[in-house]
Amino acid sequence: LQDFYNQKLHHSQRTVMKNAAHVVVRQAVDDYEAVNGEIALRFPVHITYTVYFKDERIRDYDNIATKYYTDGLKVCGVLPDDNSKYVPDGTTRVRLDRDNPRVEIEIEEMI
Q: Given CA atoms 15, 10, 70, 93 in this order, what sign does their dihedral have?
């Protein structure tokens, strides 16, 4: 999912990937809110995506599909919108974790 731009996929396959990202984000938001209460942010925010891959293949950080995760945050109600009024800045990091590939999302208020 993380580096789908390098693949030539039919739009229906991309839709499946997008929906999978939304499900993962929904579960993460539900888990977070179960422990910490409802997420209440002051905007604008900076989002940092740290993507852990299972191999050391060299990737272009800007080919990583963070948009689907950002859209998932919008669908879940964490973000009112994903435009520059609410998310004017973001960072993508690429890391290695052979045992636990994943995407970590950190949201920091910019106020």
A: positive
pLDDT at 82: 95
Tokens at 15, concatenated: 């839709």
48 strand-pairing partners: 91, 106
pLDDT at 58: 86
Mean pLDDT by 10 residues, the chain (111 residues): 57 85 95 96 97 89 84 97 96 94 96 85
Cα end-to-end span (Å), the chain: 32
Global pTM reads: 0.85
What order do you get walking across the sheet with 89-96 strand by strand?
Answer: 89-96, 45-53, 102-109
* Residue 87 near residue 79 (C-beta atoms within 8 A): yes
Q: Residue 65: what are its φ and ψ, rounded to 5°?
A: -80, 65
One-letter-per-residue 3-state SS of 57-106: CCCCHHHCCHHHHHHHHHHCCCCCCCCCCCCCEEEEEEEECCCCCEEEEE
